[in-house]
Amino acid sequence: MSNILITGGAGYIGSHAGKLLGEAGHRLVTLDNLSKGYAGAVTHGDLVVGDTGDAALVSQLLGDFHIDTILHFAAWTIVPESVAEPLKYYQNNTSNARTLMDCAVRHGVRHFVFSSTAAVYGIEPGAAPKPPPPRRSIPTAAAS
Ligand SMILES: NC(=O)c1ccc[n+]([C@@H]2O[C@H](COP(=O)([O-])OP(=O)(O)OC[C@H]3O[C@@H](n4cnc5c(N)ncnc54)[C@H](O)[C@@H]3O)[C@@H](O)[C@H]2O)c1
């Protein structure tokens, strides 16, 4: 059994992961700032309301709960908002993730699952998928 920190565990994906892992008997702590999530969605383990960008809090949790695994779901996911406010998204999705990873390395956390973009589904109705760009062969042999 693992001691798992689930960031963003009060959100859509993280809460389902927490439910399954809790039912499987793992020890869980969820870190979520509730900017988008719901406390009631955390069904197993402890919920700590806080931010992945708070290095002191993250370090305390990693130590207190003897965390060996992090599942990282804490991010913002609204594509149009990320285009309108790129720095806000950079701060949360990139800088705060970096802080979390830095703490994980310092504490010797051995397993880190990074949930990447949700913007992987869907093609505009009626639009055909773009073909890949043509491959060009570039000569690698010496010219003389
Ligand atoms: N929803 C999907 O279909 C899908 C698919 C593939 C990947 N993902 C990825 O999974 C992750 C979670 O997506 P989701 O759909 O569950 O989003 P969500 O908004 O439902 O959940 C994200 C959770 O993270 C919390 N959060 C955000 N920033 C935080 C921070 N700095 N510190 C602490 N908590 C923070 C929010 O309060 C929220 O509860 C994202 O990285 C997303 O790109 C989602």
In brief:
The protein has four helices and five strands. The protein is α/β, with parallel strands linked by helices and 144 residues long. It has a single domain (3-114), classed as 3-Layer(aba) Sandwich (Rossmann fold).
3D architecture notes:
With 144 residues, this protein is of the alpha/beta class. It has one domain (3-114): Rossmann fold (3-Layer(aba) Sandwich), CATH 3.40.50.720. It is 34% helix and 16% strand. It has 4 helices and 5 strands; from the N terminus they run βαββαβααβ. It has helices spanning 12-23, 55-64, 79-84, 86-106; strands at 3-7, 27-32, 46-49, 69-72, 111-114. Strands 3-2-1-4-5 form a 5-stranded parallel sheet, with helices on both faces. Helix 2 packs parallel to helix 4. The model has no long low-confidence stretch (mean pLDDT 92). Nicotinamide-adenine-dinucleotide is lined by residues 7-8, 10-14, 31-37, 51-53, 73-77, 92, 96, 115-118. Residues 7-8, 10-14, 31-37, 51-53, 73-77, 92, 96, 115-118 line the site of nicotinamide-adenine-dinucleotide.
